[in-house]
Design a protein that fits this description.
alpha/beta, Rossmann fold, 11 strands, about 20% strand, globular
Length: about 300
């Protein structure tokens, strides 16, 4: 198991990518705190994990409130005594032009999509540092890198997550705390359906979006969950005297992976295979004999288990 003995917190774990990731983490041996504001769907994720033989607990939490986040961290510590993985996945979408966005709406998007990550990281890092390290994963978006039509507040929040990830990767690396940002392409979640609409019109909009993707396929939450497992497991850790860096992130050290609309295929192999249709550039730095350093840029990644 890739995460045996680890303790993970997953925010927004009641549905979509968060739910799929919480279940995948538990399947790989992690004990999982399901952080969710909606008790009903959060409890369902916990029940699913427990039914599969995993260990999980629910924290009913508004991730934009510091008191709630502090309590969430305390629940994990009281239950398991440590925190190894933090997946800041909770997020909301707002589809409005800049003139239509109210101050309250702007503040709410920033609170859930950015402030929540700041609060969780702030309260988890001291415990990871005492443990000798950990993994922090943030959910970004294509909007982290390119901007998107009709979603200025959302895109701004996801751009902020990308730069927060870059800065913290530099700040926390010396403490053996890795910080990465997963930026999915078009993914079949309830958020997407709410954005594009239901019924025939919604399906038509999805087909239009997919027409810009060469593989013509929509990602599933399980696809993203497999990528998340990879990023928080030792499979993506430093391997060669601290010089080999493999990160699916916006920027960690000297290495980059960007997840956007794909254009051509790249493949990266570890114990898992990372298939990416990308603007992908995979370049090894062979200067000064340092062929173990890797620079990678990727767009719209999918992860699948090896044959």
């Amino acid at each position: 198991m890739k995460l045996a003995g680890k303790v993970a917190i997953v925010t927004g774990a009641g549905r979509g990518i968060g739910r799929a990731s919480a279940i995948a983490f538990a399947r790989e041996g992690a004990k999982v705190l399901v952080a969710e504001q909606d008790r009903t769907i959060g409890a369902d994720t916990v029940s699913t994990i427990q039914a599969g033989g995993g260990e999980s607990v629910l924290a009913e939490v508004d991730v934009s409130r510091e008191a709630d986040v502090r309590g969430m961290v305390q629940i994990a510590l009281e239950r398991w005594g440590r925190i190894d993985i933090l997946f800041n996945n909770a997020g909301i979408l707002l589809v409005k032009s800049i003139e239509e966005v109210t101050e309250a709406e702007w503040d709410r998007v920033m609170a859930v999509n950015v402030k929540a990550a700041f609060l969780a990281i702030k309260h988890v890092v001291p415990h990871m540092r005492r443990n000798g390290g950990g993994n922090i994963l943030n959910t970004g978006s294509i909007g982290s890198l390119t901007g998107q039509l009709g979603t200025p507040a959302y895109s701004a929040s996801k751009g902020a997550i990308a730069l927060l990830t870059k800065s913290l990767a530099l700040d926390l690396g010396r403490d053996r705390i890795r910080v990465n940002c997963l930026c999915p392409g078009i993914t079949d979640t309830s958020m997407l359906r709410e954005h594009l609409g239901e019924g025939l019109e919604g399906e038509a909009r999805i087909r239009t979006r997919l027409s810009r993707v060469p593989l013509g396929a929509i990602l599933s939450p399980d696809d993203i969950a497999r990528a998340a497992v990879y990023l928080v497991s030792d499979e993506s850790s430093t391997k060669c005297n601290g010089r080999y860096r493999l990160r699916i992130a916006v920027a960690v050290g000297h290495n980059r992976i960007r997840v956007q609309t794909p254009r051509r295929d790249s493949m990266l192999k570890s114990s898992t295979s990372l298939h990416a249709s990308t603007h992908g550039r995979l370049a090894r730095n062979r200067q000064r004999g340092r062929a173990d350093e890797l620079s990678l840029e990727i767009v719209a990644a999918e992860i699948e288990d090896p044959l």
